[in-house]
Design goal:
By secondary structure, the chain is of the alpha/beta class. Helices cover about 45% and strands about 15% of the residues. The chain has 16 helices and 13 strands.
Amino acid sequence: MTDRIAVFFGTRPEIIKLGPLISLLGSSARLIHTGQHFDRELSVLILDDLNIPSVARTLHVGGSTRAQQIGQAVLKGESAVSGCNAIVVQGDTNSALAGALVANSLEIPLFHVEAGLRSYDRRMPEEHNRVLVDHLADVCWAPTLGNVNNLLEEGIPDSRIEQTGNSVLEALRSVSPDPAQVARLLAGVGLAHRGFVLTTLHRPENVDDPERLAHTLKSLANLPLPVVFPMHPRTKSTIESAELDGLLDGLQVIPPVGYADFLGLLGACAVAISDSGGIQEEVSVLKVPLVVLRRSTERPEVLGTFASLTDDPDEMFELASRVLTDVEGKFEELAALPSPFGDGRAAQRMVASIERFGIL
């Protein structure tokens, strides 16, 4: 039978992590896009890169407040998943929480991809989302043993927890460009291999306060290598409204790029600086050093090896500069380290889990 599993998502990271599972589910999946990310670069390009089939329904909840996004996605989502036997959600977004609430309302099984991640920072809306989704889920697909233990400590029974690994490994390996493609990409933007810094910023703690954002942009511009900056729409909005455009003169600003091109840039940079969660996983596969600009992270597995953590733009500059003093040595060190996020078979384990429910 077709169209039995509703896959509920709304952002770029969700599309990436769900792509391998969607491919394996084939015609059994009904794709519901909430529209939380509605910019082409953050949705359509990623769907194309991962060869994800057509979305069955788009709910158009983007551009509103968190409460409005969740509420509208629940209201519209109930009809969108009508006739499905289960819902799959990923991560900690407003879309994931909405999908979880729809499953709860319709009394159908809920499967949570990337369960058990915890930052223990209650200032993050994502922390509230991921905790709620985990406690609503019938099956928590936890990437690592640490994630499993987080769930057990919160009283979630082990019968509802499965350690799967992280599907980002499959997604990354399926679309990573080959060396010739990377060479063309770098030539197109005038960059040399290991000759630039790649940075992404989008979290409210970094981009909603104009003073903090200005401090960060100045620190980035002082780095000794060109800084390539694919600009997120949220970041662009603050820069324009606060009239910070002049601080971009020292950076190489580009629009958000597709997943394959982004992986090409990430794999070729000397060091990455980001507040993204997914990049913390991707650098462990690509063996690239990362400075995480955040107060906290729900992915401690990479700290001290692939990544360092700071919420201070000045310390961010120092940590990145330290890598740049011996780029070759740092890459040699990281090349020998395994990724902590599994063996690249997470999606297969998820499908087997659904099959045990008798849904497929």
